[in-house]
Amino acid sequence: MIRVSDNNLGAVEISRDVLATYIGLAATNCFGVVGMSSKTLKDGLATLLGQDSFSRGVEILDKDGQPQVNVYIIVGYGTKISEIANNVIQRIQYNVQEYLGIRLNGVNLVVQGVRVLD
Q: pTM for this one?
Protein backbone atom coordinates (compact mmCIF):
# COMPACT_ATOMS: atom_id res chain seq x y z
CA MET A 1 0.00 0.00 0.00
CA ILE A 2 1.12 3.50 -0.82
CA ARG A 3 -0.06 6.24 1.51
CA VAL A 4 -1.54 9.18 -0.37
CA SER A 5 -2.74 11.43 2.44
CA ASP A 6 -3.56 11.65 6.13
CA ASN A 7 -6.20 13.79 7.78
CA ASN A 8 -8.27 13.85 10.97
CA LEU A 9 -10.70 11.27 9.53
CA GLY A 10 -8.02 8.72 8.64
CA ALA A 11 -5.55 7.81 5.92
CA VAL A 12 -5.95 7.23 2.19
CA GLU A 13 -3.86 4.42 0.76
CA ILE A 14 -3.67 2.98 -2.76
CA SER A 15 -2.78 -0.62 -3.48
CA ARG A 16 0.32 -1.27 -5.59
CA ASP A 17 -1.82 -3.28 -8.03
CA VAL A 18 -4.19 -0.35 -8.53
CA LEU A 19 -1.27 2.03 -9.09
CA ALA A 20 0.35 -0.40 -11.54
CA THR A 21 -2.90 -0.79 -13.50
CA TYR A 22 -3.37 2.99 -13.62
CA ILE A 23 0.19 3.48 -14.88
CA GLY A 24 -0.28 0.76 -17.49
CA LEU A 25 -3.44 2.41 -18.76
CA ALA A 26 -1.73 5.81 -18.93
CA ALA A 27 1.17 4.31 -20.90
CA THR A 28 -0.97 2.44 -23.42
CA ASN A 29 -3.07 5.54 -24.15
CA CYS A 30 0.00 7.26 -25.62
CA PHE A 31 0.44 7.45 -29.39
CA GLY A 32 2.87 4.83 -30.69
CA VAL A 33 2.54 2.42 -27.79
CA VAL A 34 1.20 -0.91 -29.02
CA GLY A 35 0.90 -2.44 -25.57
CA MET A 36 2.57 -3.54 -22.37
CA SER A 37 5.27 -6.18 -22.28
CA SER A 38 6.19 -8.68 -19.61
CA LYS A 39 9.11 -7.75 -17.37
CA THR A 40 11.18 -10.70 -18.54
CA LEU A 41 12.11 -11.69 -22.05
CA LYS A 42 11.48 -15.30 -23.05
CA ASP A 43 14.00 -16.61 -25.58
CA GLY A 44 14.92 -13.01 -26.41
CA LEU A 45 11.37 -12.16 -27.49
CA ALA A 46 9.07 -9.67 -25.84
CA THR A 47 5.52 -10.91 -25.32
CA LEU A 48 2.65 -8.51 -25.85
CA LEU A 49 0.27 -8.67 -22.89
CA GLY A 50 -3.49 -8.61 -23.31
CA GLN A 51 -5.75 -5.73 -22.34
CA ASP A 52 -6.43 -7.29 -18.92
CA SER A 53 -2.72 -7.34 -18.02
CA PHE A 54 -1.79 -3.68 -17.75
CA SER A 55 -0.27 -4.10 -14.31
CA ARG A 56 2.08 -6.94 -15.29
CA GLY A 57 4.16 -4.59 -17.42
CA VAL A 58 4.74 -2.25 -14.46
CA GLU A 59 7.16 -2.72 -11.58
CA ILE A 60 6.91 -0.48 -8.51
CA LEU A 61 9.96 -0.10 -6.26
CA ASP A 62 10.51 1.94 -3.10
CA LYS A 63 13.29 4.49 -3.33
CA ASP A 64 13.86 7.02 -0.56
CA GLY A 65 10.30 6.58 0.73
CA GLN A 66 8.69 7.31 -2.63
CA PRO A 67 7.67 4.91 -5.39
CA GLN A 68 9.92 4.49 -8.40
CA VAL A 69 8.35 2.87 -11.46
CA ASN A 70 9.76 0.63 -14.19
CA VAL A 71 7.45 0.38 -17.21
CA TYR A 72 7.90 -2.20 -19.99
CA ILE A 73 6.28 -1.35 -23.34
CA ILE A 74 6.20 -2.36 -26.99
CA VAL A 75 6.10 0.41 -29.60
CA GLY A 76 4.82 0.50 -33.17
CA TYR A 77 7.15 0.22 -36.13
CA GLY A 78 7.95 3.47 -37.91
CA THR A 79 7.58 5.70 -34.87
CA LYS A 80 10.31 7.74 -33.21
CA ILE A 81 11.08 5.80 -30.04
CA SER A 82 12.69 8.70 -28.18
CA GLU A 83 9.60 10.90 -28.66
CA ILE A 84 7.28 8.11 -27.60
CA ALA A 85 9.41 7.42 -24.53
CA ASN A 86 9.42 11.08 -23.45
CA ASN A 87 5.66 11.32 -23.99
CA VAL A 88 4.96 8.16 -21.96
CA ILE A 89 7.19 9.25 -19.06
CA GLN A 90 5.62 12.73 -18.92
CA ARG A 91 2.08 11.36 -19.12
CA ILE A 92 2.70 8.83 -16.32
CA GLN A 93 4.28 11.44 -14.03
CA TYR A 94 1.53 13.97 -14.71
CA ASN A 95 -1.41 11.57 -14.34
CA VAL A 96 -0.12 9.97 -11.14
CA GLN A 97 0.65 13.35 -9.55
CA GLU A 98 -2.48 15.15 -10.74
CA TYR A 99 -5.13 12.46 -10.31
CA LEU A 100 -3.76 10.25 -7.53
CA GLY A 101 -1.69 12.77 -5.57
CA ILE A 102 1.38 10.51 -5.55
CA ARG A 103 4.79 11.97 -6.35
CA LEU A 104 6.97 9.46 -8.17
CA ASN A 105 10.69 9.33 -7.49
CA GLY A 106 11.30 8.36 -11.10
CA VAL A 107 9.95 6.57 -14.14
CA ASN A 108 12.22 4.15 -15.99
CA LEU A 109 10.90 3.14 -19.37
CA VAL A 110 12.08 -0.04 -21.07
CA VAL A 111 11.13 -0.56 -24.72
CA GLN A 112 11.04 -4.35 -24.99
CA GLY A 113 10.21 -4.53 -28.68
CA VAL A 114 8.83 -3.05 -31.88
CA ARG A 115 5.70 -4.37 -33.62
CA VAL A 116 4.47 -3.84 -37.14
CA LEU A 117 1.01 -2.28 -37.03
CA ASP A 118 -1.69 -3.81 -39.21
A: 0.83
